[in-house]
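Apologies for my clumsy wording, but can you show me some protein sequence, whichever is easiest, together with the matching structure tokens, please?
=====
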Amino acid sequence: MDFKARYFPKKIKELKNTEEKVLLNGEILNSTENSFILSDDTGKVEIFSGGKFQKNITIRAFCSVVDGELKLDFLQDISNSDLNLFKKVEALYKKVGI
């Protein structure tokens, strides 16, 4: 894994097949042995994971785009975080262009 690679924060509606690394925040709606459905306030997307995860938890999914599909590299459970504060910080990052 290339640790110098940066994951670009995106909303689901902003996804394109051209990005190599993306960071998505959302809630796991459904999970199977090979993938899960992640939802944010802009849409839903399937992420291939190779494992089953708990439903209804809020996560940050760090993904690679491989052949037009999202492959999970790792995730962070942020269910216990203050999501309003998280959204404010995210808005500040976008405002300054980080």
Remarks:
- The chain has one domain: 8-96.
- The mean pLDDT is 89.
